[in-house]
Amino acid sequence: MFSRRVKAAATRGVSFGASSLQGRRPSQEDRYTTIEQLAPGCGFYAVYDGHGGERAAVFASAAMQARLQASPGFGKRDYAAGLLQAFSEVERDFLALAERDGLSDGTTAVVALVEPTVLTVAHVGDSRGVLCRGGAAVPITDDHKPEVAAERRRIEALGGFVSYIGCWRAMGILAMSRAIGDLFLKPYVSAVPDVKALPLEESDEFVVLASDGLFDVFDNEQVVRIVRAADDPQHAASLLTKSALAAGSLDNITAIVVALRGYRPRQIDAHSPAELATATAAQPRAAAAAAVAAATAATHAASASASAASTAAASTASAAAAAGAAAASALCSATALGGARSVASFGPPVPTSHWQRTFDAWHAAFVAVEGC
């Protein structure tokens, strides 16, 4: 039983929780920020998912709120204008650093300013925001992906291209079309955020901000279901990340849960990450998650015996590949763990050297059945 219960800090009836796991990646490139009162009656919450390294995410997480507070829009409580300026300045300043130091890092960003009656959200990339309204999931961001028609037209109008290499990629490299940083992919990868201000209603229960390590394995409705099973926002954030890991996420996983006026704890009776990973979907999907977990266990078992004779290592690699094939078959026969995402779009993490061979075999089994 998952028994950890942490009371979240509260501000004007709004409480929050946050959780971040490195997961199966060899390093942690996610960052997040939670500030109860950036201004009177206004909380600031943000998730950043770095790629190519952690430096863009570290920079953005340290700079975004400061640039926002210094903007003319912030003093006028025009937070949409303030966020547009803050994103622009963070992008400008990080690109100057990247050019000086030869950095190629980039990061997503999803930022929410929560007031008693208004939610203002800005984002670039595929980190996502979801609002629970009356028990239903309401998306408040749209993933910036190269295959989205408007994004593809923008890239091609600038002389760039979109190609499919395991998943759709801008310039054949990046699996998103907007991000902060990515010096060598400018101007095709834009840092101009989508910004919206949403009036909040009495039935609004909570907001979730999360990196794609969560949404690789759960859709919006499943995320809402997990949060509604929790005791409080901190418990909810922990359940989200632990359940995503249990369901087979291969990425860093970060989630922030902000409770709103309509929030009520424990509306669904489930307790552990394993229970939540199963309870959010039908049995075929749960079976797929179990198969992924089995493949992952085989991979980690191989890493423990990496120093054994090459014949033993080859045997272990074959077992891992078979487990990966079983997982891939389950994924193809059920709903894919990432909703609309293809199996290959999970992408391999950059593995540590001692389990490179086994992981390559495991991932190859997934890619081989992508079209099933």
UniProtKB/TrEMBL annotation:
InterPro entries: PP2C, PP2C_BS, PPM-type-like_dom_sf, PPM-type_phosphatase-like_dom. Pfam families: PP2C (PF00481). The keyword Transcription does not apply. Keywords: Hydrolase, Metal-binding, Protein phosphatase. Residues 15-260 form the PPM-type phosphatase domain. Transmembrane segments: none annotated. One of its GO terms (molecular function) is metal ion binding. Belongs to the PP2C family. This is PPM-type phosphatase domain-containing protein.
